[in-house]
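Researcher: Structure prediction, please.
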Amino acid sequence: METLLEPLAFGFFQRGLLVATLSGALLGFIGVYIVLRGMSYIGHGLSHAIFGGYAATQLFAAQFYVLGAGLWGIASAIAITAVSRRSRLGADAAIGVVTTASFALGVALFSKFGSAGPSFDNALFGSILGITDSQILWLLAVIALTAVAVFFRYRALLFTTFDPDVAQASGIRVGRIEALLMVILSLSILVTLTVIGVTLVAAMLVIPAVIARMLTNTFGWMLALSTLVGTLCGLVGMYLSYYAGVPSGTMIVLVGATVFLIVLGMTGARGLRRTAGMDHPTADRSRVAA
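Model: Predicted structure follows.
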């Protein structure tokens, strides 16, 4: 018991533990929609795009870097969606062009001018050091926004996730729903970068959702299980990062990977069959019950 209570004596660890737990829950929840739509790659891409905005904003208005990076990420997400829907350029190609260029810009700006905020390594791999009260409030605000959006647009999001063509024919404005999802995703990535890091946040969008899919065919249960797995990964990973002396994001993802291997051992081929095709936008998702 003393081992568990010891880190709680430090204020920075208390804030880090809160942010890591809430971040895991948020990414686990949003990740279900992303993974079932075959858009796993976009989480990876947007985290890199936001990094570019994060670096660029600090050069001109360091105190507003969160707002600037958020707007940059939202613009990138909407641009990717618009390009992939209105041209022959596929979503993967659009993500590759927009986000890798943005990430390269961020690295160049960091290398040339340095940073007024968290260090380069902390931005890439996450750190519990320097988490502020304002960052916690931003995270809580995004969680509240996500809850409200899903509550009021649950059926539209569900319908669009499983069959966007039929949803469009049924009168649902698929473009607006996709834009809403991209905005929520961008904001979720932004507020979790502090503790998980640019290079690892995409893993926490995918791992909990895949684990949940291996355990259930029901969409509602998948949302609940993915959120729970993300929460536990954040909580356990934060404790282990404290004792191991490694970046928080690294340990959180390693915990998620360990849980994945355990669930894989439990479910075997049945679990793998359930996840077949989840990484492709044309995957058959009809086997997931609403």
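Model: The chain has one domain: 10-275.
Researcher: Thanks, that helps.
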